[in-house]
Amino acid sequence: xxxxxxxxxxxxxxxxxxxxxxxxxxxxxxxxxxxxxxxxxxxxxxxxxxxxxxxxxxxxxxxxxxxxxxxxxxxxxxxxxxxxxxxxxxxxxxxxxxxxxxxxxxxxxxxxxxxxxxxxxxxxxxxxxxxxxxxxxxxxxxxxxxxxxxxxxxxxxxxxxxxxxxxxxxxxxxxxxxxxxxxxxxxxxxxxxxxxxxxxxxxxxxxxxxxxxxxxxxxxxxxxxxxxxxxxxxxxxxxxxxxxxxxxxxxxxxxxxxxxxxxxxxxxxxxxxxxxxxxxxxxxxxxxxxxxxxxxxxxxxxxxxxxxxxxxxxxxxxxxxxxxxxxxxxxxxxxxxxxxxxxxxxxxxxxxxxxxxxx
Length: 359
Ligand SMILES: NC(=O)C1=CN([C@@H]2O[C@H](COP(=O)(O)OP(=O)(O)OC[C@H]3O[C@@H](n4cnc5c(N)ncnc54)[C@H](O)[C@@H]3O)[C@@H](O)[C@H]2O)C=CC1
Ligand SMILES: CC(C)CC(=O)C(=O)O
Ligand SMILES: [Mg+2]
Description:
globular, Isopropylmalate Dehydrogenase, binds magnesium ion, ten-stranded mixed β-sheet, binds 1,4-dihydronicotinamide adenine dinucleotide, manganese, two-stranded antiparallel ribbon, binds 2-OXO-4-methylpentanoic acid, Rossmann fold, 19% strand, 41% helix, alpha/beta, IsoCit/isopropylmalate_DH_CS
């Protein structure tokens, strides 16, 4: 029987609540599809700060590296917001992505038919939307040097970060996007700010150069401000959206609302070798943490991505995705998606319904 070692990073806020559900569902599909999952819980973010005094202990990173796949819920809490930057939960997540060399973050945005009325946009705008954000994840302004804060002679303080990309960093993420576009509808839109930023002009030049090797992919470029507008104007025009770390972070939260809730969007963070990290797009939702209110579906769909991409257990992945569609078709909703005629469920009760749907 195939056996896989999974590192679980429950993290902070709603993280432990949604992780508990994902684990139960993964155990069930493993049983149903005849493979074994060995879970290893490790601390990250605020949880690790409490236990080890740092957001990414060496033991957590080592466990992740030694596993077949990593499933992360979310990190962050307001109580850490005034710590020095390197000691904050978010720095732990960035260090984890860098430590595993996970340069490609895939964020699929597909409309579940049962949620066609759940978006803040009209059904005719979002119907049929099926796009994939390919976000560069280990470069750009989140990692660029120099950065910091300095005191100026005139008494002012200045804060600064640097957005950098090298040609090889652009090439490797562009290749991921071109390859995925080829497997999908063959339409790739690269999003940048090349009208203003040198780093974006380099990005655009490299993407254009790569296009020669992909004559079957229809490549276009769009400035990020326009892309933000087009995503809510006519989202069906997009197939694969290729973009940088910062722009992808922002655009994917915006795109989440096409599906009805940020609580619906999963992601996969991948490198060229080694284990992938599978993580919902949302954060730790401190405003609803510990209240059994969270939507666990983004986490469950991230677990499905882990099964498909990380473990090549396609049938089990599909079973999880079908369970998500089934509970939504039955009208079960957590508070973020609640609508007239639906049944409102707590996070844990949604987990029970998902288990029932799998049975
Ligand atoms: N990957 C990660 O671990 C991420 C961590 N963060 C961290 O999370 C903390 C909170 O950040 P925010 O900007 O508030 O973003 P957030 O995504 O945690 O929350 C934004 C809003 O969406 C709601 N929400 C998020 N996930 C939900 C879910 N599964 N079900 C129902 N509602 C949900 C929240 O209640 C909140 O109103 C911060 O410390 C931030 O740094 C933020 C984004 C990603
Ligand atoms: C919390 C940040 C480190 C990242 C983030 O918002 C994201 O990856 O979506
Ligand atoms: Mg984000």
